[in-house]
Amino acid sequence: MASEHIEKKLKLLPDLPGCYLMKDINSKIIYVGKAKNLKNRVRSYFKSSHEGKTAKLVSEIYDFETIVTSTDKEAFLLEITLIQKHKPHYNIKLKRGTGYPYIKITNEKDPVLKIESQVKKDGGYYFGPYPNVYAAQETLQLLQKVYPLRRCHGYQKRPCLYYHMGQCLGACFKEVPPEEYAKNIKKIKSFLNGNVKGIKKELTYKMQQAAENMEYERAGELRDQIRYVEMTVERQKIISNDNTPRDLFSFYMDKSWISIQVFFIRQARLIKREKRLFPCIDTSEAELASFILQFYNQKNRLLPKEILVPAKLDKEILSEILGIPIKTPKRGPKKELLELATKNAQLILEEKFRLLELDDRKTTGAMKELTDALGLPLGHRIEAFDHSHIQGSDLVSAMVCFIDGRPEKKEYRKYKLQTVDHADEAASTREVIYRRYSRLAKENRPLPDLILMDGGEIQVEAAKDVLENQLGLAIPVAGMVKNDHHKTADLLRADGHKLGLDPKSEGFYLLQRIQDEVHRFAIAFHRQVRSKNSLSSRLERIPGVGPKTRIKLLRQYGSLKKVAQASLEELQALGISKKVAQTIKLSLNPTEKDSKNKNKM
User: Fold this and answer.
1) Taking the model in full, what pTM does it have?
2) Which of 77, 128, 98, 122 is nearest to 295 (CA)?
3) Superfamily of domain 368-530
4) Which one of 145, 278, 462, 500 counts the least CB within 10 Å of its CB?
């Protein structure tokens, strides 16, 4: 049931299009949505029954705000901007970028055919994406042999090897007319857009000519190229009679989860597929529309000439935003392909449900056990800290991050302690907590729902004091206490009370995983720092080796053993004088010095 505060705000909602932002108890934005009618859409969250992820979202909403827009199109664009800015927990979020390669014809005086991983607005012609790098490389090599452009680095007064092989038009030693490039570029674009008959006909003719001239090796090479065209380009079923590059989106939704399929149609054939699975808050059509806009907002995403989508999507607004036609096929192979994508989405979702049910108990279920035990509202993000040193030297701290019970390794952080020069757990905790959360507050980035310290009351009290008295932040802190066998035993509350979690519960297993992970990460970082410091200190004691020389050696070799094994010539190649190089060798290889002394005797 909605609170009195929310009930009052619901009465003030306008009958206008716009975006709404749902907030949790800490005023953190946890969901962003759009609506044609804000009043009807926002009220539906609190006046209707829900299940699954939507029910979890509603249970965490303590407040909301709305932003009115002039049109539905503005609401679409604003929603994507707000999702990218705030990264709400309950929204579909796509990672930026893709690793798929493209074939590019450069836009320059002497154009080149090359493989690129990034699409840039440089006037070049990009084709792709390709399912893998190998397929792109094979296609590139075929085109370079049949329709050569420039393969060399440019004018160099003499023909390059590629020119003699017939794979370069000769920009290396002569001025190539633009018309000659344009002729081959036209054929390359035609091939990349699906017209393979021309290249097969040309290759077959060249093969027959080579055979007649008894150039059998050349004929065999051309035969292999024809087979490659047949195997890689023609082996797939033709989707349509035209060569328009298309992307196709379809979905299947069940139990508040949406399964999305993306088919890439190039050269009139299906060349690649992507699949995504997300918990769903809004209607399936709204979620798919949001997914499509984020999909093409990613780095290296090249818009096709046309997009195919299911019937109920708002195609007019999407088309206006993306600037390309968006259609729903009514009949024929494209309609069959849309149905196939829907069937694939359904199969993947049904296959995943069982795994999701099992995994939920170990992740979000375990997270709820921990927050319930501490008397906290359900959260999603835990950050845990541990310190490491040997007899007070090489002091470091490390932080790991778990979101909904899963490690988020890209959020892990390492800290070399700057204000602590001896073993002091409280001082180490104060420094690392202040550095971490003063920065998050300054950058206005999301704060964790719970901080866990690997240790007892000393670490917990120090962290709590810095957060409350220095930073003014109200983030719950708890400790992970180990027993005499150095195994996870208890969860320590901020008031010093130990909570005896059931050792067989998922909450206890999660606590154990977090403690083991932060300890492993801190130890690994400490070993790395100690190793570097050990190498650096040995080098410092060698006469003639200053900071610059030390840095050169560290970057080049990384270990004392490798420095000792390096020859005098290799050391001198780094810009080290012969005398200093000899001193380094004798200092790190005392046996060489002894053997030289014996030889003198």
Assistant:
1) 0.47
2) 98
3) UvrC, RNAse H endonuclease domain (3.30.420.340)
4) 500
